[in-house]
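User: Some background: our group keeps a shared notebook of sequences we're curious about, and every so often someone picks one and asks for a predicted structure to add to the entry. Today it's my turn. The entry only has the sequence so far, pasted here. Could you supply the structure so I can complete it?
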Amino acid sequence: MRFLSVWKISEVILGAFSRALPRMVL
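Assistant: Of course. Here's the predicted structure to add to the notebook entry:
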């Protein structure tokens, strides 16, 4: 259960980071 929650959080963080990365580069 705890591992799944951590996976969900990391997935959301990676998604937000992948969206913000192009903006930071540009």
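Suggested note for the entry: The mean pLDDT is 88. The chain is about 90% helix and 0% strand.
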